[in-house]
Amino acid sequence: MSPSIPGPRRAPARGKRAFAATWWGQAWVTALEDSTLDAGRLSRGRTYARKGMVGPTSVAPGQVKAAVQGSRPRPYRSSVHLPVLTDAQWDTLLDTIAARAGHLAALLDGEMPAELVDDARHAGVPLLPQPTELDPECSCPDWGYPCKHAAALCYAIAATIDADPFVLFALRGRSREEVLAKLRARRTANQETAAPPVPTGIPAAAAYTHWAEHTPRLPDLPAPAAHTATLPVAPPSGTGLATTDLERLMADAAARAARLLTGDTTSLHLTQHQDAVRIAASSPGPEWFHRLIQNTGTKPTTFARLTRAWRHGGPTGLTVAEQPYAPDPAVMTAARTTLTAALAEMTTAPVLLRAWRNRLTLTDHGIQLRLGPDARWYPCLQDDDGEWWPEAPASPDPVTALTSVWQQTGR
């Protein structure tokens, strides 16, 4: 029996991204919007969803369906289909979840770890939907693909996916209970596997003394060789490779190698997506910027926002822009108290300060401060579409971070 989700529910009215607050919920909305060029029907679908015209939704393997009220008295039967995973893909996905204890803990806390999705995708398991996978269906006479009723259903279910990432598992073929049962079975099997005997070894003090007495002196590091940014030969014709592009990549690789020699490993383990943002943040020019957008499949505004996050905070700034997390509540409480006192001196008008996970938001001012894993506060401003843009370098003091954007907006 498929679970039924109560309805109708009105979606937030501001910005088309207001239907999803999490990155995985936004991935669902992005898959819908990238599956069609019919912006008119998507706009009507958002309007229907905001007005609460989508009835209770029912999620089953491979589909979500609901009655959607249209212009006629009787609602239409709308559904959206998504391919279910094969048994082999499910085994791979469950092994990926079980490989890290934090994955399951995050899922049970209502979070979808980005690392889990990346690892699964690299193993050939598409957990998040692709634009070509969503298959809408509706009893209305509209020939659109999707029609406005199916689009409304997709927008309405995004908030549910936000709150419970297990809905994505159900759409891919297995319920929350089935997934948890399979993970428990894997954990039991791992615990029953006998560990190999540990070698007896020797006392640590004796081992260190022997090493200290017999270890030869390490040789000095050689001086870095001089690097030239000029290609020795031109690239072969017909390859599409330009000499200037290759020389730029050579210079970038040499600069990264030099930083590694100094012990700076911040860019050593970047993903392809993160490295593309890093290159774009170095201002390579509009042609490179557009190529990076095309090759990563990222929307231009999203890529521009992440590029600005890198410029203000490097890899940590990018993580803060993409992944919310739950910090120490005491840290958030202290910061909120400090900001409240500072705001009382900065303005006489009451200020609504809302806290969610690692974010403190001045709702009426379009200002948000995000606490990073480096214990620094990253200030952001909200645009007309409801998107948050990094606007200044991070600061360990939340009041300093607030002041930097407060003055910038002229308040």
Detail the topology: elements first, then pairings.
Elements: E1 4-5, H1 23-34, H2 39-50, E2 57-60, E3 63-68, E4 76-81, H3 87-99, H4 101-108, H5 114-122, E5 135-138, H6 148-163, H7 166-171, H8 176-192, H9 204-214, H10 243-261, H11 272-281, H12 286-296, H13 300-322, H14 329-346, E6 353-356, E7 359-362, E8 367-371, E9 377-382, E10 388-390, H15 398-408
Antiparallel strand pairs: 1-2, 2-3, 3-4, 4-5, 6-7, 7-8, 8-9, 9-10
Give a short overview.
The chain is of the alpha+beta class. The chain contains 15 helices and 10 strands.
Question: In words, what does this structure look like?
Answer:
There is one protein chain. By secondary structure, the chain is an alpha+beta fold. The chain has 3 domains: 4-189, no CATH class; 244-322, no CATH class; 329-408, no CATH class. The chain is 48% helix and 11% strand. The chain has helices at 23-34, 39-50, 87-99, 101-108, 114-122, 148-163, 166-171, 176-192, 204-214, 243-261, 272-281, 286-296, 300-322, 329-346, 398-408; strands spanning 4-5, 57-60, 63-68, 76-81, 135-138, 353-356, 359-362, 367-371, 377-382, 388-390. Helix 1 (23-34) runs antiparallel to helix 6 and helix 2 (39-50) packs across helix 6 (148-163). The longest helix has 23 residues, at 300-322. It starts with a strand and ends with a helix.
